[in-house]
């Protein structure tokens, strides 16, 4: 066996976030994953609501007080943003799966549209909730 075959080469390393320049599609991809995790948390909150509803008026009242608190409203606001963002980003992924809007300018425009939709839809839902007295 020659010396060349016994030489151990270092494993190649993949580029890290510090190497890449941040761009909007990268940020929305990461936010898409984060909102997916937030929706799992929302499912647990929904399950807690159902259990409190089944447990009776006392447990349900406690749950509603918690969700009506400033912290609860902040969580619900974040969940509503997560729903709309995850929905819009999922639609963008479906468009990409059809082979459309894959070039950088179109992908960036789709990312901006995704964020804009999520912000506007969340604001509209919360404004309607405030106008109808649901808050």
Short précis:
The protein is an all-alpha fold and 135 residues long. It is built from 5 helices and no strands. The longest helix has 32 residues, at 24-55.
Q: Can you tell me about this structure?
A:
The protein is an all-alpha fold. Helix content is 77%, strand content 0%. It has 5 helices and no strands. It has helices at residues 3-6, 24-55, 57-68, 70-97, 104-131. The longest helix has 32 residues, at 24-55. The chain is extended, with a radius of gyration of 23 Å. The model has no long low-confidence stretch (mean pLDDT 92).
Which key terms come to mind for this protein?
135 residues; mainly alpha
Query: What spatial form do the alpha-carbon principal axes imply?
Result: extended
The number of strands is 0
Low-pLDDT segments: none
How would a textbook summarize the main sheet?
Answer: none
Radius of gyration: 23 Å
The number of distinct helices, counting runs of at least 4 residues, comes to: 5
One letter per element, helices H and strands E, the order comes to HHHHH
Bin the helical content: over 70%
| Global mean pLDDT | 92
Structural class by helix and strand composition: mainly alpha
SSE inventory with pairings:
Layout: H1 3-6, H2 24-55, H3 57-68, H4 70-97, H5 104-131
Helix pairs in contact: 2-3, 2-4, 4-5
């Amino acid at each position: 066996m020659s010396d060349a075959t016994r030489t151990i080469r270092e494993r190649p390393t993949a580029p890290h976030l510090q190497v890449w320049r941040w761009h909007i599609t990268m940020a929305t991809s990461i936010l898409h994953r984060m909102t997916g995790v937030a929706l799992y948390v929302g499912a647990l909150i929904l399950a807690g609501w159902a259990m409190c509803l089944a447990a009776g008026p006392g447990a349900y009242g406690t749950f509603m007080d918690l969700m009506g608190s400033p912290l609860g409203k902040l969580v619900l606001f974040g969940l509503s943003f997560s729903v709309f963002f995850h929905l819009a980003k999922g639609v963008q992924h479906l468009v990409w799966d059809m082979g459309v809007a894959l070039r950088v300018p179109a992908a960036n425009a789709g990312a901006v549209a995704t964020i804009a939709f999520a912000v506007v839809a969340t604001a509209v839902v919360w404004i309607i909730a405030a106008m109808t007295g649901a808050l």
